[in-house]
Amino acid sequence: MNEAPAVLDATLVAPAKVRRVGRALVWDSANTSALVLARELCRQGWTVDWIGGAASPWRTSTAFDGERTIAGADDEHLLRTFHEHPLDALFLCGDDHVRWILDHWASLPPGVRQHLSKPASLRTALSKEHSMRLALELGVPVLPTERCTSIDEATAAARRLAPHGEVVLKGEGGAAGCAVASVHSGKPPSLETWTRVTRFAPVAFVQRRIRGPRVFMSVVYEHGVERAACMHEKVATYPADFGPTAFGITRRVEIVHEYARRMFGALQWHGIANIEFRQDTENGRWYFIEINPRVAASMGIQEAAGIDIPGTWAAVCMGRGDDNPPGCGYREGVHYAWTVRGLALAFRRPRDVPAWGLATLLSKRSDLAALDTPLRWRALRLAFWLARQARVTRSKR
């Protein structure tokens, strides 16, 4: 992990408060999901400890009322943290965290491993190729896909899959759209595009590009049994079509829910995850896109819709997963906004902001409420920076 040297910053360590519920450890990935879930757990009486990078804006947030540990590149320091921490619930917020867990599985204490899916399931969920193969085996629709290792192979595949349209190139190991690109079938992808897509692995997967709504289902599973689920549609993104959500709305698509149940049941999933599907408006079918085997970066809309994702997983970790029936009775049509991306979109492409977007940004149905006052100003500055960065990038092209 490319972070600062591993140290325990004594100035950030607060004595954990004694609570009746338990201790949760949140491995932060510098998105507001960590804050949203931390505030909800604190409200329910949990002590919430933070572990993350030195550059994380959340390291001083009041959302975390327990110990704060700087995690650097020293594996021994991280392993010692996991061995010594009296955690009752574990929350991973980044794909890199899942990869680190897999690389060090044999060295982790049983008290940590019990809060995770089996290694084979984690590897399948992390891999676009393996998860697509699982979907096909289970009868879940997957777009025709070709695996390519060169620009020439990708160009030929594009002509076969979408002779008169566009294709999508997808690379392994990316997140937030950093290893995804769209390309016109009539011309080869540029070397810059190919390098970006294959930055984490030497292969790219080519699929025809479809136009239709994209939905994400955030779930909690206990050894293959669904405990909570909430679906939302990605209404607008920033900075690109494949980037993080800026505005979303809760939806219910029963066939997608069924597909998700098949896949997480087959994986015997144990934990929080996020699964994505997209509809092809030409034939109406919903196609599996990918699984994110950790806390989704879009956390917050679930709580607004009436589903407690962090609390449900915490209950599972404490052995109380079957106390309540599966939590999937959420409200449909709930609008939600993510502050930084939403503001950047409003600054850069105001016409793409939904009619309800600006009002939602300033309401309780945004992650703005999870930010401390100093962090709100920082979010505003970051939104301006993102908007300007997109302009600079485009001008260079």
What does this structure look like?
The structure is a single chain. The strands form three sheets. Strands 13-12-9-10-11-14 form a six-stranded antiparallel beta sheet. Strands 3-2-1-4 form a four-stranded parallel beta sheet. Strands 5-8-6-7 form a four-stranded antiparallel beta sheet, covered by helices on one side. The chain has 397 residues and is α+β, with helices and mostly antiparallel strands. It has 14 helices and 14 strands. Helices cover 34% and strands 21% of the residues. It has helices at residues 33-43, 75-84, 95-103, 110-113, 119-126, 128-137, 151-161, 191-197, 254-266, 301-304, 309-317, 339-348, 357-361, 373-396; strands at 23-27, 47-52, 68-70, 89-92, 146-148, 166-171, 180-184, 204-208, 214-222, 225-237, 245-250, 271-279, 286-292, 335-337. Helix 3 (95-103) packs antiparallel against helix 5 (119-126), helix 5 crosses helix 6 (128-137) and helix 12 (339-348) crosses helix 14 (373-396). A hairpin with a 7-residue loop joins strand 10 (225-237) and strand 11. It has three domains: 10-116, Rossmann fold; 144-208, ATP-grasp fold, A domain (Dna Ligase, domain 1), CATH 3.30.1490.20; 214-396, 2-Layer Sandwich (D-amino Acid Aminotransferase, Chain A, domain 1), CATH 3.30.470.20.
